[in-house]
Amino acid sequence: MNGNQIDRVNTFCYLGTIFKNNNSCQSSMKNNVDEAKKALFKLEVLSSEIDFELETKLNLFDTLIKPIFVYGREIWGPENFERIEISHHNFLRRIL
Predict the structure, then answer these.
(1) Is the pTM higher than 0.90?
(2) Residue range 54-79: average pLDDT?
(3) What HEC string does the chain produce?
């Protein structure tokens, strides 16, 4: 481009979303799930130290964890939401 060679890479991260040269969204989705699980673990530790009401726990999940899970979901496609639903279900089982 303009006399400069552009390097070809297998993956790159743009605005927190991982893009691969095979057009797969799996890396990005897996990264989101991994990061959300870390945040979820921290929330569970905090919840064990402080006895939050159920409604507060759910609100904390919706405001702190859910945004991490769904960041960039527009590019995943609807068939890839199973991992998120499984993690959400597991969280609900642990707090109830």
Answers:
(1) no
(2) 82
(3) CCCCCCCCCCEEEECCEEEECCCCCHHHHHHHHHHHHHHHHHHHHHHHHCCCCHHHHHHHHHHHHHHHHHCCHHHCCHHHCHHHHHHHHHHHHHHC
